[in-house]
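Per your request, structure below.
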């Protein structure tokens, strides 16, 4: 089983790793929006570009980019879960050892530890980000969640937002607690996805997890390249 999961982990990660890193990195950068926007006049335009890259990979049609992001997100879920089972030690006494990065070890060992340990530390948050992110990727998934989840109220401090009408320029006040259930669910999905559910701590936790997630494909590629080189040397 472990051998199969390793192959699955690799097969899914190799073609999607770069896109996953882009999605995670842009998400991490966007998590600081509410803190940077008031003090940097150029930030709104930068944020728009980050969002366009995060959701649609700069695809002008949006349709293809949205689909690719959605598929890569589904693959990332499988990659994370398979990584968890690969990480699990055969003996529970070794769990503590598997949660430590051996910084005094050689380069290859440090990269392996960063890949495995950081993946475990941020896995739950990354899974939350994946499952909430899919709300904007697939209509069928979104409708299924609407049918399964009922939200009575959104916390008052995050229930009311002001948005600008694109046609008139008028500022519109929206109270999500006065909306239908689907809008409340989407509001919660947004709060969980952006970290705005938890004051200053939520975006910090979300941004950190996303930033750590962005490193996983990079360390994974390094490990894969080193393995290929090692195999070539052994054949000589």
């Amino acid at each position: 089983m472990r051998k199969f999961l390793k192959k699955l982990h690799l097969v899914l990660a190799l073609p999607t790793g770069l896109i996953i890193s882009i999605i995670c990195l842009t998400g991490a950068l966007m998590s600081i929006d509410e803190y940077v926007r008031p003090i940097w006049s150029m930030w709104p335009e930068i944020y728009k570009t980050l969002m366009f890259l995060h959701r649609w990979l700069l695809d002008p049609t949006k349709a293809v980019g949205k689909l690719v992001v959605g598929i890569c997100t589904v693959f990332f879920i499988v990659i994370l879960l398979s990584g968890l089972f690969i990480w699990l030690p055969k003996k529970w006494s070794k769990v503590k050892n598997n949660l430590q990065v051996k910084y005094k070890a050689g380069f290859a060992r440090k990269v392996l530890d960063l890949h495995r340990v950081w993946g475990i530390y941020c896995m739950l948050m990354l899974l939350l980000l994946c499952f909430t992110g899919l709300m904007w990727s697939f209509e069928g998934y979104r409708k299924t969640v609407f049918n399964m989840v009922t939200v009575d109220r959104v916390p008052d401090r995050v229930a009311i937002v002001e948005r600008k009408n694109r046609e008139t320029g008028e500022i519109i006040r929206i109270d999500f607690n006065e909306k239908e259930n689907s809008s409340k669910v989407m509001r919660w999905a947004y709060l969980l996805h952006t970290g705005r559910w938890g004051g200053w701590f939520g975006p910090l936790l979300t941004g950190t997890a996303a930033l750590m997630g962005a490193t996983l494909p990079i360390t994974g590629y390094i490990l894969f390249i080193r393995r290929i080189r090692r195999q070539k040397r052994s054949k000589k």
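The chain has a mean pLDDT of 93.

Regards,
D.
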